[in-house]
Amino acid sequence: MRYGLFIASIFSSSVLFAQKSLVGPGKAIDPFHYTTVKTISGSKAAVASAHPLASKVGTAILQQGGNAFDAAIATQLALAVVYPAAGNIGGGGFMLARRQNGTLVALDYREKAPAAATRDMYLDASGNAQTTLSQNGHRASGVPGTVAGLFATAKYGKLPFAQLIQPAIELALHGFAITEREARSLNYTRDAFLQYNTQPIAFVKNTPWKAGDTLIQTELAATLTRIRDNGMKGFYEGTTAQLIAAEMQRGNGLITTNDLKQYQAKERTPVQFNYRGYTIIGFPPPSSGGILLAQMLKMVAPYPLAQYGFQSVRATQLMTEAERRAYADRAQHMGDPDYWKVPSNTLMSDAYLKQRMADYSPDHATPSSAIKAGLVKESDETTHLSVIDAAGNMVTVTTTLNGGYGCRTVVGGAGFFMNNEMDDFSIKPGVPNMYGAVGGEANAIAPGKRMLSSMTPTLVLQNKQPFMVTGTPGGTTIPTSIFQTIVNVIDFKMNATDAVNQPKFHHQWLPDEIDVEKAFPDSVRTSLTNMGYTIKELDGIGRVELICIKHKNGKIILDVAADGRGDDDAEGF
Ligand code: DON
């Protein structure tokens, strides 16, 4: 492996890294003085992610000769430091890519239930679901997959892993200036940090955080250094694994050193389908995202959305009804394909989806109580990054701890948050998880099983050439956000910035309501209410990172947008 070759080099690593250092005052990236860029127009390569420092690290790696895979790895590692609410090494994710030669790669590094997990582990003696345990503290964590995913991604990269992780090490060791949003979020979560930790952590200090404060994460730097020097084993075995297991024991968690040693990322076969002549490539189970996207886009495809118009009552209502029906299928039919036969082909077939829309009426709401999953005969906190390089490699990654700062427990001595991904299982049939999603047998807990996800990293091709690289966080609102982003670009002909920032709406079957963002027009809300819909306002739906690849006079133009709802940042050249 590349990192192996690197550490075998005769140079002392510090000399070599000093030469390669990107991060620091006066270097290419100054972590104490940086600005946020929301939209760029490039011609070669671009990175859009949830934090300016992470996008800058990814772009610097591209400039050093790395490809989109290298940039995606370096960006994720930087996010694990500068965006601790969601960037992670204690969580999991999905990487979807199209290589310059046209081949597709879907890497599943979703967390797994520990070997000691049981189906009813979150039920009390009377059989009541205890979501507080599936969402908070040690017992909420699945076995992390991110580090395995990064090394599996490195197979497609060009640069040594040590070079890709070094900026993250330096950001953790020497610190960086936190943003206003981060200061607010750390202050807001302070009580939970105190409640769910057994040892002092870098994220709690005596006075409130404010914008510009320096966050130093010495223990995380040491963990990242172990990963740099020992590869996968630097996380899944040895000191880091022992620290994780010890932390679990202090808080009644289940993950053991053996669970960690067993963890492996998996290659999956992407979902592919056609929408109005474009090829959409999505992530298959254990994500529900790719199938949901296929279902929703195919259900609306027979209707002239462009003619109805953006934010028209007609378009919004039609898309809502497609969303409702797709999510009913999610609850019944989707789970980890290694444990449950997901009837993917049927769920995405034209005939099935036509029949799903047979009871659609453009005049009124179909109550969710009248919608069940189709009969199939076939036997707040996550983060996204989109990357393209000059050779045309497209990489889209969504990665998550699940809730903000995951289970809020930092591994003592290792400096990183553990996920609370166990809550993405259906802990009891019909009991909503933290995103209101319900499920049953398909997504029940079993040892070693991956919990169902909504993450929807997505690629779009036009005439077999790169056209869109996109994805977003947002729990169950992820697939509907990507659905709307694609419709905004393809049907409503928006540029990247508008496609990302226009207000969104969301329906997920249960609860039976349309969630809308604040700026969603009042007139449309009123018309929908009159048709029988319940409308609820949500703070923000999605944080989409979008790269659109356009052609003008034979030249490529990258139209790149980082979502205006967060610190998200777009870089490129
Ligand atoms: O995998 C999932 O579907 C969830 N764990 C994602 C959580 C998420 O997007 C939170 N972000 N705001």
Mean pLDDT: 95
| Ligands (ions, cofactors included) | 6-diazenyl-5-OXO-L-norleucine
Give the overall shape: globular
| Total domain count | 2
The chain-level structural class is: alpha+beta
Q: What distance lies between the first and last C-alpha atoms, to the nearest angstrom? A: 30 Å
How would you portray this structure in words?
The structure is a single chain. This protein has 573 residues and is α+β, with helices and mostly antiparallel strands. It has two domains: 24-40 and 52-95 and 103-266 and 386-428, no CATH class; 271-382 and 454-552 and 559-564, Serum Albumin, Chain A, Domain 1. Helix content is 35%, strand content 16%. The strands form four sheets. A seven-stranded antiparallel beta sheet has the order 1-18-17-13-12-9-8. A hairpin with a 2-residue loop joins β12 (458-462) and β13. α4 packs parallel to α7 (161-174) and α7 runs antiparallel to α9. The two termini are 30 Å apart. The model is unreliable at 1-19 (pLDDT under 50). L-glutamate binds at residues 110, 400-402, 424, 453-454, 475. Residues 1-18 form the signal peptide. This is Glutathione hydrolase proenzyme.
